[in-house]
Amino acid sequence: DYRLVQPVDAVDNGQNLYEGGRSVFGVSAPTLSSVLSGFNPSWHEPERDFGGQFNCAVAFAQAILRNEVARTHGEALAWAKVDSAIRESANGPIVVLDQFVPWGDQVRDEAPHALFVVFPSETGTWMVQAVNAKAGTFESRRLLPESWAGLRDEAFSAAVGLPDGVFCHPGRFICGAKSKASALRLAELALL
Asked: What is the helix (H) or strand (E) element at residue 8, kind and residue range?
């Protein structure tokens, strides 16, 4: 639990695992090295197949490398789209992307005025996400309103006065709506 589940859960909920180089929760994220060494057979297994497990580890590592190359290539392609959206924001607090592309580092580093990014998710809803204050942290430049935290569907829609609200994460760094117009309105409301 503390080796795999808790680190994933902490990151998913917007918690930093480390502060000042020390573990905050007594858990640490698995490294690629630790995951690959996990393929080694345990000392007590009656049939220890080192060769077979090595081949599994190699296939796993190859998949990670292929995905990383594809991700890096995609980030390079996304750069121009994000740059254009930043320029279109005219130094305003809301940057709008018309398609999902990786944007976090670029908006944080190149748009000090930006507080929120509005973008379509890969599931069809529109998201409003807070821009991180600095690299390596989940601290946001501005959080979504406290009264929205953890609300979903009808309760969220009622709280924000929109017909198609979807949710607001308990950590208040992201929320969503079914339409672009509503997501833009959520971002505007979050600025009040």
From this structure: helix 5-12
Domain with 28 in it: 5-67
Residue 123, SS3?
coil
Contact 186, 125 (CB under 8 A): no
Q: What single-letter DSSP state applies at residue 132?
A: B
Summarised one tens digit per residue, pLDDT across range 124-153 is 999 999 999 998 888 999 999 999 999 999
How close are the terminal C-alpha atoms of the chain, in Å? 40
Owner of token pair 């994460």 = 169
Does residue 49 lie in a domain region?
A: yes
The model's pTM: 0.70
The amino acid occupying position 152 is R
- Looking at the structure, tell me whether residues 154 and 109 fall in a common domain: yes
Query: How far is residue 121's CA from residue 175's CA, in Å, rounded to a whole number?
Result: 11
Residue 70 burial (C-beta neighbours within 10 Å; 0-12, 13-18, 19+): exposed
**Residue pointed to by tokens 């180089």:** 21
For residue 95, give every residue at least 6 positions away whose Cβ sits within 8 Å of its Cβ, in sequence order, or none: 85, 86, 89, 103, 107, 111, 114, 116, 117, 118, 131
